[in-house]
TrEMBL record:
This is N-acetylmuramoyl-L-alanine amidase. It comes from the Bacteria. InterPro entries: Amidase/PGRP_sf, Amidase_domain, PGRP, PGRP_domain_met/bac. Residues 6-131 form the N-acetylmuramoyl-L-alanine amidase domain. Belongs to the N-acetylmuramoyl-L-alanine amidase 2 family.
Length: 262
C-alpha cells in the first residue's frame, strides 16, 4: 500500500469501521491525484475515497481511517474503496479484479468484517456505482471464501482442517490443463463447484488423481493411426489398448516380431 504525500483540509477519524463500500470513479483512466485535485476543487478536504486501486495495480491509501466523502450520509462508519475504471462501459481486467479482491479481504480482516459488511455504492445511494459490468456476485463469493473449514468426522478429537478454496489457488499456466482434466474426469458437482469458485483444493487434487488413474483412451491419435493399423494387421500388436504404456519385456517381443517379418 502506498500513502502519497497530499495536501488535505480538515479530517475526522472514523470511530469504528463497520462497513466497506465499493466504488468506481466512472472514468476509464483516472489517477488518485486527479481524484484528489477534483475533490479539492469541489471544496472537499481532498479525495473522498479511503483507498484506491489503480489499473497499474498500485494501491493507495487516501483518507485511510479518516471519515471519507464517497457515499452521502454513509461515511461516518464506512471505508470507501475504489477501483479505477468505468464499469458501466468496460469489463474489469481479471488480474486487477483479483488484486482488488485481495486488498478488500485485507481490510475486512483488519477490521473484523465479513462479506455481509461489504456493499456497492448503489446499495446505499441512487447510483449505478460500481457499474453494471462489475462482477458483483463473483466478487462477493470471493471475498467471503478465503478459507473453508471442514470437520474430520472419523477423528473428532483432531483439530479442524482448513482447505483453501480453489479460487484462491495460483494456477499459473496449469489452469487450462486442469480445466481439461476436470471436464473429462470430474463429476457434475465438482464441475459446478469450480464454475462457482467453490471447489476446494482438496477436491481439486481428487480430480487430478482421477485423471492420473483413469483408464487410457482407446482412440488412436491420427498421427499414429496408419502405423498402428499396419502393425496390427501384421500381428506385431494385437490391436488392443493403443495408449497403454509398454514394458521393456513387451518391447523386446515387439522388436522380435518386427525382425521376424510379422
Amino acid at each position: 500500500m502506498i500513502k502519497p504525500t497530499l495536501r488535505w483540509g480538515s479530517l475526522t477519524p472514523i470511530g469504528q469501521v463497520r462497513r466497506i463500500i465499493i466504488h468506481h470513479p466512472a472514468a476509464v483512466r483516472y489517477s488518485y491525484l486527479q481524484i484528489h485535485n477534483q475533490h479539492r476543487n469541489q471544496g472537499w478536504s481532498g479525495a473522498g475515497y479511503n483507498y484506491y486501486l489503480q489499473k497499474n495495480h498500485e494501491f493507495y491509501e487516501l483518507r485511510g481511517l479518516n471519515v471519507g466523502a464517497h457515499a452521502a450520509n454513509e461515511n461516518s462508519d464506512s471505508l470507501g474503496v475504489c477501483v479505477e475504471g468505468n464499469y458501466d462501459v468496460e469489463n474489469i481486467n481479471e488480474s486487477l479484479f483479483l488484486r482488488f479482491v485481495d486488498e478488500v479481504r485485507k481490510l475486512m480482516r483488519k477490521h473484523g468484517l465479513t462479506a455481509n459488511d461489504v456493499y456497492r455504492h448503489s446499495d446505499v445511494g441512487n447510483t449505478s456505482c460500481p457499474g453494471g459490468y462489475f462482477p458483483w456476485a463473483r466478487f462477493k463469493r470471493l471475498i467471503g471464501q478465503a478459507e473453508e473449514v471442514k470437520s474430520i468426522v472419523h477423528e473428532p478429537k483432531q483439530e479442524e482442517v482448513i482447505y483453501v478454496k480453489a479460487g484462491d489457488f495460483q494456477w499459473a499456466s496449469g489452469k487450462e490443463r486442469f480445466e481439461h482434466i476436470l471436464n473429462r474426469h470430474g463429476n457434475s458437482s465438482e464441475q459446478e463447484a469450480y464454475k462457482n469458485d467453490e471447489l476446494t483444493v482438496s477436491d481439486a487434487f481428487g480430480v487430478l488423481a482421477k485423471g492420473v488413474l483413469a483408464e487410457p483412451s482407446q482412440t488412436v491419435p491420427e498421427a499414429h493411426k496408419e502405423a498402428w493399423d499396419e502393425y496390427t494387421e501384421r500381428g506385431v500388436y494385437n490391436g488392443k489398448n493403443p495408449n497403454h504404456p509398454i514394458t521393456r519385456a513387451q518391447h523386446a517381443t515387439v522388436t522380435k516380431r518386427i525382425e521376424d517379418g510379422m
